[in-house]
Amino acid sequence: MIVQQMFPPEGLDPDDDLHGDARLFSIWVIWRGKGKYSVQQYSGDGPQLSRAGNWSRWKPEPFQRHQYRFTYDEACEWAEKLRGTLTINGRTYAQVIEWRKSLDAKDPA
C-alpha cells in the first residue's frame, strides 16, 4: 500500500531541491483509509481536490469527505493532470525558474 506519493512539476528533482520548492509546487496523493486517497496541494492538511475538480480552502467536514476521496488510480490521474499547475505568489514552478534565471542574468556576481 502506498501511503503518500509526490508529483513534482516537470524539471523539479525533490532530491536536489535547493530552494525548498518540492513541497510547495508538488501535488500529493495521500492515503486516507479504506482504500481511498486525497489529492492535495501540500502534504499534511493542505487544500484538497474535490471529485468535481475544485480545490477546497479548508479540510472537508466528515460528512463531505466522500466528495474529496478517490481510488489510488483516480488520484494519480488527477495528480498527473495537475502537475505543474500550482501557483505560489502568482507563479507556477516554471515561471519561478524563469524569474530566477532573469535575476541571475541581472546580477552575474
Describe the structure.
By secondary structure, the chain is an alpha+beta fold. The protein has one domain. The chain has helices at 21-25, 72-82, 93-106; strands spanning 4-7, 27-33, 36-40. The protein has a 3-stranded antiparallel beta sheet with strand order 1-2-3. A hairpin with a 2-residue loop joins strand 2 and strand 3. The longest helix has 14 residues, at 93-106. It is elongated, with a radius of gyration of 16 Å. The model has no long low-confidence stretch (mean pLDDT 89).
Binned, the helix content reads 25-40%
DSSP summary: helix tally = 3
Shape: elongated
What does the main sheet amount to?
Answer: 3 strands, antiparallel
Mean model confidence by pLDDT: 89
Quick structural overview:
With 109 residues, this protein is α+β, with helices and mostly antiparallel strands. It has one domain.
Fold blueprint:
Blueprint: E1 4-7, H1 21-25, E2 27-33, E3 36-40, H2 72-82, H3 93-106
Antiparallel strand pairs: 1-2, 2-3
Key terms for this structure?
109 residues, alpha+beta, 3-stranded antiparallel beta sheet
